[in-house]
Design a protein that fits this description.
An eight-stranded mixed sheet has the order 4-1-9-10-11-12-13-14, sandwiched between helices. Strands 3-2-7-8 form a four-stranded mixed sheet. The protein has one domain (11-20, 48-100, 124-315): 3-Layer(aba) Sandwich (UDP-N-acetylmuramoyl-L-alanine:D-glutamate ligase), CATH 3.40.1190.20. The chain starts with 10 loop residues before the first strand and ends with a helix. The chain is built from ten helices and 14 strands. β13 and β14 (242-246) form a beta hairpin. By secondary structure, it is α/β, with parallel strands linked by helices.
Length: 323
């Protein structure tokens, strides 16, 4: 696929966050332990992190997508960055630091669990990119901006998010859980978001609750549409006081790395193309489930034809159950 040229038209989606080259070991016969060596024939090098997986999920479904990140001087020689370029994602606002290495993660997947080791000095203070005129111009060309990274230093985020929202651009964030950021500080940032996408563990940690449903209810005091991802049980959201919930696809999990980020990309694509809340959840679940069925977050992502086939099958099964 040719690299898309930047035009005066707005992007459907701009994703801001951290890029990683992922080295993924999977299909292990035994769980790794310190002092032991575990061998496997199953290995993959792929783009990783929330930025790449969310952007690729939306782009493959047809959303015009740009990314904003920081990579090292080695990026041009990396197959992972090459894949980003081949997919046609706009990278013209990305920063290249020639003296540093692109972030690298080694991921080990065993059954439904995984562990990761990461080298990413290049990602420190990534929010400093928000001071760049080129980055701000790119963000303001989006219909929707998704932040796929930790939200540190609120003073960096708040004016940017406020300006985006005042311009009519919707915003979402998938920021994980940072115990160094108080709920009050976090609220001061995410109150500008249309959506946030915590998983069940993160949602309960953020809100101080022990139940996903209660966490969802509390999060609606923070953002208009909170979404909580439930892993193999699917996902749910709350809109105008009503709860929507949809199940995941019944797939075999090979590697759950990046499945939540794939969900974000599928959900946002559906939202940007006018889907209702149930279909947004279904779209996210399709992308998240298919992502987890293959090693690496981006390898199982569907294209438009496959996506439509799964969506039609889900709705057909729902109609049969309602008869």
């Amino acid at each position: 696929m040719a690299v898309r040229k930047e035009t005066a038209n707005k992007f459907d989606l701009v994703v801001f966050g951290e890029f990683f080259s992922d080295m993924i070991f999977y299909g292990l016969r035994n769980q790794p332990r310190f002092g032991e060596e575990v061998k496997t024939d199953s290995f993959l090098i792929a783009p990783g992190g929330g930025l790449a997986t969310s952007a690729l999920a939306a782009s493959r479904l047809g959303s015009m997508t740009a990314i904003v990140t920081r990579v090292g001087g080695d990026a041009e020689s990396l197959p992972t960055w090459g894949e980003i370029l081949r997919e046609g994602l706009d990278v013209t606002a990305c920063e290249v630091r020639k003296e540093q290495a692109t972030a690298l993660t080694a991921s080990v997947a065993f059954q439904s669990n995984r562990m990761m080791m990461t080298h990413d000095p290049i990602n420190r203070n990534l929010e400093d990119l928000l001071s760049s005129k080129a980055v701000l111009a790119k963000l303001h060309k989006a219909r929707h901006v998704h932040f796929a990274c930790a939200l540190r230093r609120p003073q960096k985020w708040i004016p940017v998010m406020k300006a985006l929202r005042d311009s009519g651009i919707t915003i979402s964030a998938d920021f994980g859980w940072n115990p160094d950021l108080s709920p009050k500080q976090l609220l001061s940032i995410v109150k500008y978001c249309e959506f946030i996408f915590p998983n069940e563990h993160e949602g309960k940690a953020i809100t101080g609750t022990t139940d996903a449903l209660r966490a969802l209810e509390k999060l609606q005091d923070w953002v208009r549409i909170p979404v909580i991802k439930l892993g193999k049980r699917g996902a749910m959201l709350m809109a105008n006081g009503r709860i929507y919930r949809q199940p995941a696809l019944p797939t075999t999990i090979v590697d759950a790395t990046g499945a939540g980020d794939a969900f974000d990309g599928g959900f946002l694509h559906a939202f940007l193309h006018g889907a209702d809340w149930d279909d947004c959840l279904r779209a996210g679940n399709i992308c998240g489930s298919l992502s987890a069925s293959q090693p690496g977050g981006s390898q199982g992502l569907p294209g438009p034809k496959e996506f439509r086939r799964y969506m039609a099958a889900i709705k057909s099964a729902k109609n049969r159950r309602s008869l």
